[in-house]
Amino acid sequence: METAKTATVRPRRAVLTPVRASQIDAILPFLELLSAPGFSPGEWKIEPGQGPWFSDVPAVAGLRDALYAHGWVDGHFNWPDWQEAAQEFVVPGRVAGADVKTIRQLFTTHLRKDRFCEGHLAAMLESGHIRELLQRLHEIRATARVGQTGASRCGSG
User: Fold this and answer.
1) Dmax over Cα atoms in the chain, in whole Å?
2) Which residues contact 38 (CB under 8 A, 6 or more apart)?
3) pLDDT for res 50
4) Helical H runs in 56-156?
5) How far is CA 26 from CA 14, 44, 70, in A?
């Protein structure tokens, strides 16, 4: 019988489920919003007696909601252990060869990290990184063969 003291700690599984074409289609409309001239993800708010907090514009809140709702943020992926690898993709142009699995890992990492480090997602939006991820998905979707079930064969691993 395992007790709290003797229970073995099981690491989170790092296996991501396959991504379907419908999941890509659900978030691609945000590419146009993020590409609009003068786009800003929001602003920092500072109120007396409170710490600073980031106020998203509705488009960013919608993107965040869509990423969670359509399975782009995988709660089983061990994103803290992957942060160093994720940093390599933040360099402009590095997303160009990324596959769907990597893009999903990046979305998971950025959205989960934003929960612990407020403003992280805004920084990724301002740098153009999130737009690059969506652009890469657009390219993948345009060339992907989609089966009868809607499953995408676009490198989801």
Assistant:
1) 61
2) none
3) 87
4) 58-69, 79-89, 100-116, 120-126, 129-143
5) 24, 28, 7
Q: How many CA atoms lie within 13 A of 97 on its CB side?
A: 2
Would you say residue 132 lies in a domain?
yes
46 assigned to some structural domain: no
What's the length of the chain? 157
Is 45 a domain residue?
A: no
Domains contained in the chain, number? 1
Please state, in angstroms and rounded to a whole number, the distance separating the CA atoms of residues 40 and 56: 9
Q: What is the residue range of 94's domain?
A: 21-37+53-143
Look-up: residue for tokens 């993948």?
Answer: 140
Tell me how far apart the alpha carbons of residues 142 and 124 are, in angstroms, rounded to a whole number: 24
**pLDDT, tens digit (0-9, with 9 covering 90-100), for 59-68:** 999 999 999 9
- Report the candidate in 133, 15, 23, 19 with the shortest Cα–Cα distance to residue 77: 15
Query: What is the pTM (predicted TM-score) of this model?
Result: 0.80
Cβ contacts of residue 114 below 8 Å, gap of 6+? Answer: 120, 121, 122
Secondary structure of residue 52 in the 3-state scheme? coil
Task: Give the percent of the chain with pLDDT over 70.
Answer: 81
Residue 63 within any structural domain of the chain: yes
